[in-house]
Amino acid sequence: MYRAVWEVTMVVHFIAIGYIALGGFLAWRWPRLIWPHLAFAGWGLIQLTGLVECPLTALENWGRHHAGASGLKPGGFIDTYIEGVVYPAQYVWLVRWVVIAAILISWAGVALRHRRAQRGMSHTSTA
Asked: Can you tell me where the transmembrane regions are (predicted)?
């Protein structure tokens, strides 16, 4: 059971990180998703400071410990599964800036789509 906790938590963690990076683009189609994306992106920014531990990291470490496995690397989920695996460790800051750019581009797209929708409503209400 503990292994299942850790593995499910790992999958949820991958989904959450993917949502942090790309969830703003989902809001282009489903505008209400911008609000949870803002919360997730804010949490991601807090995580970059290293001041608080992610509850998903804590849960995965708990499951790993109780399953008799070693915990995640000191840097947590990203240092264990992503950095040095998906991209070389020396590019960590480049990857962070690319993710930040993707988030900002997605938010700009949401704002533009919202503005166009507002204009469309004002044109139909005056017609």
From this structure: 6-26, 33-52, 91-112
Torsion sign (Cα): 84, 89, 93, 97: negative
- Express each pLDDT in 64-99 by its tens digit: 999 999 999 988 898 899 988 889 989 999 999 999
HSE, side-chain direction, 13 A CA sphere, residue 111: 6
| Pairwise CA distance, residues 123 & 25, whole Å | 26
Using the 8-state DSSP alphabet, how is residue 82 labeled? I
- The residues near 36 (Cβ < 8 Å, ≥ 6 apart) are 23
| Arithmetic mean of pLDDT, 99-116 | 93
pTM over the 0.90 mark? no
